[in-house]
Amino acid sequence: MAEVLLRSHLNARGVHASVGSAGSTQWNGGADPGAVEVMRERGLDLTAHRARPLSREVVESADLVLGMTRAHLWAAACHGDDVAARAFLIPEIVRLGQRVGPRQPDEDVARWIARLDAARPVAPVAGHAHDEVEDPLHHPIEVYRATADRLDRELGKLADLLTGSERSVDGPEL
Question: What pTM was estimated for this model as a whole?
Answer without folding.
Answer: 0.88
